[in-house]
Amino acid sequence: MSRQSSSRQRSETDKGTTEEGLTEGPSPEGPPERTPDVPAQGRDDAGERDTAPAQAADTDSSAGTDTGAVADTGAGAGHDQSPEPSGEAEEVEEAEDPEETTVTGPLAGTVPDAVPVPKGWRAKYPVVARTVAWTVTGLSLALVFTALLLPTKLTLVEPSAFMRIPVEGIFGATLLLMLPTVARRVVAVLAGVALGALTILNLLDIGFNEFLGRGFNVVLDWILLDDAESYLKDSLGETAATVAVIGVVVLAVAVLALMALAVLRVSNVMARNTAVATRTTLVLGTVWVMCAALGVQVAGAPFASRSTTALVQDRAERVRKTLKDEREFAKVAAVDTYGDTPGDQLLTGLRGKDMMITFIESYGRSAIEDPAIAPGVDKTLKNATKRLSKAGFASKSGWLTSATYGGSSWLGHSTFLTGLWIDNQNRYRTVTAGDHMSITRAFQRTGAWRTVGIMPGVTKGWPEGKFYGLDHVYDSRDLGYKGPKFSWSTMPDQYALKAFQRLEHGKKHDKPLMSEIILTSSHQPWAPIPKTIPWSQVGDGSVYKDIQKAGKKPADVFTDPTKVKTEYGKSIQYSVNSLIDYVLKYGNKNTVLVFLGDHQPLARVSGDNASRDVPVAIVAHDKAVLDRISHWGWDDGLMPGAKAPVWKMSSFRDRFLDAYGPNPGGGTAPAAPSAKR
Q1: Residue 113 pLDDT greater than 60, yes or no
Q2: Cα 461 to Cα 373: distance, rounded to the nearest angstrom
Q3: Are 392 and 620 in contact (CB under 8 A)?
Q4: Model-level pTM?
Q5: Residue 280: which of 201, 408, 174 has the closest Cα?
Q6: Strands 472-475 and 450-455, sheet pairing
Q7: Residue 155: enclosing H or E segment and its boundaries?
Q8: Bridge-partner residues for 618, per DSSP?
C-alpha cells in the first residue's frame, strides 16, 4: 500500500480516536462502532499502534459486525502497510490523551461514546439539575448576605435592612479568589463557621433586646439561659420546654453547618467562574467605595454597610469593658459610707415600727402612663390612696430608675437595697460575696428588729439571704402552699401575704419586724392571673385550683400584642390590691410600708423606647415618718405624677438611711468612724 494511501487511511481513522485508545469509523449504514487498536505487524519495532484501513471498516459496517471481526481485518491490513514515521505516531498518542482529544469531521459537536456518560437523575433530568444547582447557589448567597446584614433588634428586621452591600462579603470574596484550592476550601469552611457563630450571637441579641432591653453579654449571660429554660417549664410545661430546648440546640448546630456549607458552595462556584467572579467583586467593591464616600443611605442606614465589622468590634469592646468592670466594681463595692456606722446610729427614726419592704414584679412606669394599661392601674392606685387615707394612713411616691429592664429582678432588688449600681450578673456575684451593707442588714445591725424574707419565687437554696442580713428566709417550700402554680409564679400574692401573717407578722415578738417581701403574681406571661378572695378563704391555697383552671392560657396572651398589655395591667392591679388590702386588714399604727417595682415589663408591653423608671411609695400611719422625707419632693399618694423626682435606684439606700438616721437631712451619713471595707 502506498504511503499516500496509508496516510489517507490514518487520517480517516483518526477521526474516531477516543480517550480510551479506541477508534470510531464513520459507517454509512449505522452509527460508528468502537474498535480496538491493533498492534502493527512486521517492521513496527517501536510498538506504535496502527489503525485499520477505512476499507476494512466498510466491509464490516453492518449493524451486526462485532469488534472481533474488525480486529481481524485490521490485523490483516497491517502486513501491507509501510512503517509510519515517528512524528505521526506521536500525533496518535496525543490524540489518545483524554485532556487533548479533539473530534472533527462528521462527529464534530457530539460527545464521543468513549467519554463517560453521567448517570443518575442529573443525566435523566438535566433541566431540573440545573435549576436545583442555581437554587442552591442562590440560597447560599442569600444565607451569607442575611448573616452579614442581620440586625440585632427585632424591630429592625425588615427588607430594607438587607438592601445594602456588606464590605465583609467583598473582602471575603477577594480572599477566596486569591487562594489555591485546598486553602480556599479550608478558609471557606472556617469563615462559614465563624459567620454561623456570629449569627447565633445576633439572634441572642434579638432575644435579649426583646426581653431585657439590652444585648447579649458573651461573658456574663450564659447563666441566664438556664433561667430561660426554667421560665419555659413554668410557663409552658416541662414537655414543651424540653422540645423548645432541643429545637434551639438543633437550630444552633444547623446554623453553624449550613453557614459553612453555604460559604463553601459560593467559593466553589466562584472558583469555576473566576473571570465573572473577579469582575463582579471588582464592581461591587467600586460601588461600595463610591457609596461610602457619598454617604448614600437606604431607609436611614448606609448602603455601604460595615455592620458585621462594627458588631465584632462592639462585642470585643464589651468583653474588654466587662473584664475591666469586674476589677473596678470590686473596688467600689469595698467602699461603704455606712459600712462602719454603729447600730445605735442607724434607723433611729423608725424604731418601734413594723417595716415592710415589698417589691412588685414588673411594676414599671408604663403601668401608670401607657394609655393601653394606665386606666385600670391608675384607678386602682387612686382608690387605694383613698382607702388608706380613710384608715389613717398617708403616702408619698416618686420614681426610681432601675438597673435592669424586662427581667433579672434580683439586679433591681440588690441595687435598691445596697446603694450600688448592679446591672449585670458579675456585679451581683461580687457584691453578694462581700459585706457591703444593705438596707435590710442595717435593720439587723441595730439589733432592734427581727428580719425575715418572704420569697415565693425562690425554689431552692438561697445563700444570699445571709448577705442581706435576714434572720430567716421563707421560700416557696416553706410557705405551705398546696394550690396550683400560676404560670411562673409559684403562688398568688394574696396567699404569700397571708402566709407571712400566719408565720411571722401575726405572732407575738419581743421586737418589731422588718420584712422583705417579693410579690410575683405580676410576672410574665401574665396568664393566668389569680383573683382576690376573702382572706378567710385563702387556707392552704387549694381554693385557687378552680381559679387557675378558669384563667387564660399563657400562649394566648403572651403572643397577642393587645391582650398582653391588658393582662399585664390586670396583674399589677391584683398585686397592688393584695398588698393594700393586707395593710388595711393586718396593719396597725406602727406599720410602715415601702413598695416599688423592680423593673419595667419587657418591650412588648412597655414599648421600644420606654424608660427604666419604676414607681416607689412609702406608706405610714405615723405622720412623723413621712415628715422626714418631706424634702425629697415626692408627690402625695401612691401614684407619682409625671413631674415627680426621678432618682437612680442606687441612690435610695443612702437617702433612706440619712432621712431616718439621727441627723435627717444632714448629709449622706452621720458622723462616725470611717473605714475601708
Answers
A1: no
A2: 36
A3: no
A4: 0.71
A5: 174
A6: parallel
A7: none
A8: 396, 594
Three-state DSSP class for residue 391: coil
Residues in the chain: 677
Please check whether residue 113 is in contact with residue 18, taking contact to mean a CB–CB distance below 8 angstroms. yes
The secondary element (H helix, E strand) that includes residue 635 is: strand 635-636
List pLDDT tens digits, range 545-561: 999 999 998 888 888 88
C-alpha cell at 464: 444570699
Classify residue 127 as exposed, middle or buried by CB count within 10 Å of its CB (0-12, 13-18, 19+): exposed
Q: Is 342 exposed, middle or buried (0-12, 13-18, 19+ CB in 10 A)?
A: exposed
Quick check: 381 and 639 in contact, CB under 8 A?
A: yes
Distance, in Å, from the CA atom of 142 to the CA atom of 147, rounded to the nearest integer, reads 9
| Residues paired with 475 in a beta bridge | 455
Q: Which three cell numbers stand for residue 444?
A: 439587723
Instruction: State the pairing for strand pair 613-620/591-597.
Output: antiparallel
What is the C-alpha to C-alpha distance for residues 340 and 334, in angstroms, rounded to an integer?
12
Q: Quickly list DSSP for 19-70.
A: TTSEEE---TTSS--EEE-EEPPSS-TT--EE---HHHHHHT-STT--HHHH
8 Å CB contact between 496 and 453: no
Q: Is the pLDDT of residue 80 over 50?
A: no
Query: How crowded is the C-beta side of 78, counted as CA atoms within 13 Å?
Result: 19
Q: Please provide the DSSP assignment of 357-417 as one string.
A: EEEETT--THHHH-TTTHHHHHHHHHHHHHHHHHTT-EEEEEEEE-S--SS-HHHHHHHHH
User: What does each C-alpha distance from 103 to 17, 95, 96 come to in angstroms?
Assistant: 8, 9, 11
Q: Cell numbers for 562, please give them.
A: 393587645
Which range, of 204-213, 303-312, 467-476, averages the lowest pLDDT? Answer: 204-213
For residue range 590-647, list pLDDT tens digits in order.
999 999 999 999 888 888 778 999 999 999 999 999 999 999 999 999 999 999 999 9
Helical spans, DSSP H, in 78-180 = 86-96, 121-124, 126-149, 167-178
Q: Are 54 and 1 in contact (CB under 8 A)?
A: no
Per-residue cell: 666: 444632714
Q: In the structure grid, which three cell numbers stand for residue 338, read together?
A: 455606712
CB 546 within 8 A of CB 506: no
The beta-strand segments (E) located in 447-543 are 450-455, 472-475, 513-519
Give the separation between CA 175 and CA 168, rounded to whole angstroms.
Answer: 11
Cβ atoms within 10 Å of 534's Cβ, excluding its own: 8
Residue in the block written with cell 476589677: 327
* Pairwise CA distance, residues 404 & 224, whole Å: 14
Residue 359 is placed in which grid cell? 417589691
Nearest partner of 152 among 335, 318, 348, 325, judged by Cα: 318
Strand 394-401 relative to strand 646-648, pairing: parallel
Which stretch of DSSP H or E encloses residue 302? strand 301-302
